[in-house]
Amino acid sequence: MKKGVFTVLFYEMPIKHNVLTLHSSANEGKNGDVTLFFGLSGTGKTTLSADPNRALIGDDEHCWSDNGVFNIEGGCYAKTIGLSAEKEPDIFGAIRYGSVLENVVFDPLTREVDYDDATLTENTRCAYPIEYISNAKIPCLSPNSPSNIILLTCDARGVLPPISKLDRNQTMFHFISGYTSKMAGTEDGVTEPQATFSSCFAQPFLALHPMKYAKMLADKIETHKANAWLLNTGWVGAGFAQGGKRCPLKYTRAILDAIHSGELANVEYENYEVFNLQVPKTCPNVPSELLNPSKAWTAGEDSFKTEVVKLGKLFRENFTKYESEATEDVVKAGPVV
């Protein structure tokens, strides 16, 4: 039912109302600034939008109109594998009477859940009313248009930067591409990360050509002078296969804090070759050596170049199906291999 309604709205809202439907989470700062998080399962949409310093508008399905942003749903659907009060206090605290846990293992006598137990599946979940998040915004809408648009990815190859600032054409290219890695626990039968692409981070629900949604997004970003970012919550130092580690959540949150404070928009940037992304040289509370994958890589220069080119080619191959409808500038905004 949830996804069926979502698909209908991907047609109805853009065609009949000139409103952009979004597979995204959204939150709002104390000054009324709104941030959208686009991303597939396992990239951090729910986790990162549940920020104690910002009001949660919603974690998965929204619309962006001329009058702001509103949530389509009345609840959240969070992954719980490895969940702890220390790592994700807002989500942990939302699990109480009235919430529904799926696929979890628990002690039948004490009813205590073991969130680290993946015996049944790694895709353990909890559904809960949005008001169970203490700082949820009720009603779930904002009259303000977003100030920051964040495209989330989880790159298992470790070659995409933790954060990059995107221009209009890059935003459209990466939005249409919808790259991430299928993570263990988010898809049946997936136990290791695999590269995947889902246009507009919502391919199963799209009723129109991805370029239609991408142009609407880019026009809205331009009209409201928003910043667009590519945020990689995946591997740093090396890829999954080379023994790299996933970017610590504390660094990802520090990057978001710098985005919301406006600091990250004003630091010095450098070009990251092949993908031609603008990467910050510094970010408050994040080690500078992590920001550029070419400098953070620990598995040898040759393997780094191989992985960068390999991922770049995957992007180009995937985008061929959209080139007939995309502008030349958008096509050129992708990696050069």
TrEMBL record:
A Gene Ontology BP annotation from the UniProt entry: gluconeogenesis
Source organism of the structure: Fusarium oxysporum (strain Fo5176) (Fusarium vascular wilt)
InterPro entries noted in UniProt: PEP_carboxykinase_ATP, PEP_carboxykinase_C, PEPCK_ATP_CS
GO MF annotations, alphabetized: ATP binding; phosphoenolpyruvate carboxykinase (ATP) activity
PROSITE patterns found in the cross-reference section: PEPCK_ATP (PS00532)
Gene3D superfamilies associated with the record: 3.90.228.20
Name of the protein in its database record: Uncharacterized protein
Highest taxon above the source species: Eukaryota
Designated gene of the protein: 28945542
SUPFAM superfamilies listed in its UniProt record: PEP carboxykinase-like
A cellular-component GO term for this protein: cytosol
